[in-house]
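Hi R.,

As promised on Friday, here is the backbone we talked about, encoded as C-alpha cells. Could you run it through your design pipeline when you get a chance and send me back a sequence?
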C-alpha cells in the first residue's frame, strides 16, 4: 500500500492546508518519468518520517486550478506545507539526501 496519500482538488484544503502536521506534496503526472523515479524515494521518506510529516501526491492534469494557484510550471515539483503555508519548494528530481535535509529543517 502506498504511503503517498492521493490529493485532489476536492480534498486539497482538508488534506493539505488544514492538516495537523506538515505535508510534503508532490505535484506530478502519470506521464512524467522523473515523477516515477521520485515516488519510491518519497515512499522511503514517508516510512522514515512517519508521524512527523504526511506525504501526498497531486496529479497536475487533474488539479489544474491548484497547480496554477501555486505556480507549478514543471513536474515533479514538491512543496512542503506547514500550518497551511508553503515553507519549502523543491523543483525537479532530487536525491533522497537533499529531500531528507529539507524535511529535517522543518521537523516538529
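Update: got your reply. Pasting your designed sequence below so it's all in one thread:
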Amino acid at each position: 500500500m502506498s504511503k503517498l496519500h492521493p490529493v485532489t482538488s476536492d480534498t486539497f484544503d482538508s488534506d493539505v492546508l488544514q492538516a495537523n502536521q506538515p505535508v510534503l506534496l508532490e505535484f506530478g503526472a502519470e506521464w512524467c518519468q522523473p515523477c516515477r523515479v521520485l515516488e519510491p524515494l518519497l515512499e522511503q521518506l514517508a516510512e522514515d518520517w512517519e508521524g512527523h510529516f504526511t506525504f501526498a501526491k497531486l496529479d497536475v492534469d487533474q488539479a489544474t486550478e491548484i497547480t496554477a494557484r501555486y505556480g507549478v510550471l514543471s513536474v515533479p515539483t514538491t512543496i512542503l506545507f506547514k500550518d497551511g503555508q508553503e515553507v519549502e519548494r523543491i523543483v525537479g528530481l532530487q536525491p533522497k539526501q537533499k529531500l531528507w535535509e529539507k524535511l529535517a529543517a522543518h521537523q516538529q
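One thing I noticed while checking it: Residues 33-48 form the longest helix (16 residues).

Thanks again,
M.
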